[in-house]
Amino acid sequence: MLSAKFLTASEFGLLSILRSTAGMLESLFTGVNSGVIIDEVSKNKKVTANLLSLLLFYLVVILIILSLIPLLKVNISITSLFLLTFGVTLSTTINLVLIGLSYYSEQKKLTVVSSVLSLIISFVLVKMYGLQGAINAFILLAFTDFIIKVLFLAQKKVIFTSIHLEPTLIKRSFKYIIIIAPQIILFWWLKVSLSNSALEDLGRFEFLYQFVTLITLMTGTVSSVAIGRFSTAEKNIVLKQSLVINFLICIILVSLSLSYGNNLILLVNKEYDVSERMLLFFIMLLVVFPLSFASLISKFFLANSKDSYNLLASISAVLSTLALIVFLTEVNIFTIAYSYIGYHTVNFLILLFLLIRFQKANE
Q1: What is the tens place of the pLDDT at every residue in 210-224?
Q2: What is the rounded CA–CA span in Å between residue 222 and residue 322?
Q3: Is the pLDDT of residue 353 over 90?
Q4: Do 350 and 312 form a contact (C-beta atoms < 8 A)?
Q5: Hey, how many other C-beta atoms are within 10 angstroms of the C-beta on 75?
Q6: Which is it for the CA torsion 292, 297, 303, 305, positive or negative?
Q7: Which of 173-177, 256-260, 299-303 has the highest mean pLDDT?
Q8: d(CA 252, CA 262)
Q9: What are phi and psi of 142, to 5 degrees?
Q10: The pLDDT value given to residue 349
Q11: Strand, helix or coil for residue 349
Q12: What is the pLDDT of residues 245-293, one digit of tens each?
């Protein structure tokens, strides 16, 4: 949002393409494997082994995929893309490790420190150097967050336990990449397609989606804490409590966003005025409900070693979304919004159906 204040909609659209591509690559690894990482770390505490295995795995695969990016003729810097992707991957991984080790409060405090630094660094770099400053700020902040949290783990003497590769984690990670990759690539392709004809529209869409991101960051914290508790408490009780908490968070924050969101947008940058696009804003905000609930249920299945359930739901949702895109024919910001809510709704409904069956079978 701070970047949006000093950038035009077109520049923010270009920034969003870089961030979306880096986000796609990062999501293929840490986003897909968030539950796996927390589960593995909380079970065996092999922090160094897990970190080393993951980071080497990420680095190799990221380099392979980046080598293919020029073939897509996307107007982005490969150097900036690599640094941003790897930085965000490092930052996300270390946060998941902290949660897996049950350092919940410490992780929040360290994140506050990183957030304060981000505010200062972003303000200076974006105001002085515009778009390139915004790109450099995101890269610098990701690496800073990682370094702060690694130093914390080193101080706790948990980062230097044993140095070796952990093949189990790599196998589970690879399995989840195959499961989730289609929907991540699908949404990235939609944004790239839109950027070729309507960069300003993409910038406005990405700015509005920051509200969804803020809400899902909060509900995602609940999900991460839940999977950490699945191994130590009654899974069904943890799941029910977490679903109720997520529902309340979504209701409160969506209501606040609809009531005061446009006023906040006008304070940031009038170019993103949403007063004539409240329907789009409302549709986008609805995504947080199925997205948050599906995230929790998928982590519940992960804790119960039911990976096939997540695979079935994801593939079904991708196929449904592809059918919706073919029906809509034109790629625009409404197409992307409908695709997001279509995918996450189908994914949630199938996971819910499988959850009911699973619980009946285990009564």
Answers
A1: 888 888 878 777 766
A2: 30
A3: yes
A4: yes
A5: 11
A6: negative
A7: 256-260
A8: 16
A9: -65, -45
A10: 93
A11: helix
A12: 888 888 988 888 888 887 888 887 777 777 767 777 888 888 889 988 8
- Count Cβ atoms within 10 A of the Cβ of residue 129 and give its class: 0-12 exposed, 13-18 middle, 19 or more buried: middle
Residue with tokens 């625009």: 332
State the average pLDDT over residues 92-109: 75
Distance of CA 312 to the CA centre of its chain: 21
Tokens encoding 103: 């350092």
pTM of the predicted structure, to 2 decimals = 0.70
Count other C-beta atoms under 10 Å from residue 29's C-beta. 25
Closest CA to 21 of 79, 84, 63, 64: 84
For residue 229, pLDDT over 70 is answered with: no
Position 187: which residue type?
F
pLDDT exceeding 90 applies to what percent of the chain?
Answer: 2
Tell me how far CA of residue 71 lies from CA of 78, 85, 192, 280, 344, in angstroms: 12, 18, 13, 33, 30
**9/270 Cα distance (integer angstroms):** 10
Res 34: pLDDT: 64
- State how far the alpha carbon of 295 is from the alpha carbons of 35, 290, 292, 342, in Å: 10, 8, 5, 15
**Token pair 């230097």: residue:** 160
Say which residues have a Cβ less than 8 Å from residue 37's Cβ, sequence separation at least 6: 30, 50, 54, 93, 96, 97, 100, 169
Q: Hey, what are 100's tokens? A: 């897996």
CA 62 to CA 86: how far, in whole Å? Answer: 8
As a whole-number percent, the residues of the chain with pLDDT over 70 amount to: 73
Residue range 5-20: average pLDDT?
79
Question: Is residue 33's pLDDT more than 50?
Answer: yes
Q: In this structure, what token pair is assigned to residue 329?
A: 């024919």
Q: What would you measure as the largest C-alpha separation in the chain, in angstroms?
A: 62
Burial 326-360 (b: 16+ CB within 10 A, else e): eeeeebbbbbbbbbbbbbbbbbbbbbeebbeebee
Measured CA to CA, the distance from residue 60 to residue 85 in angstroms comes to: 12
93/98 Cα distance (integer angstroms):
9
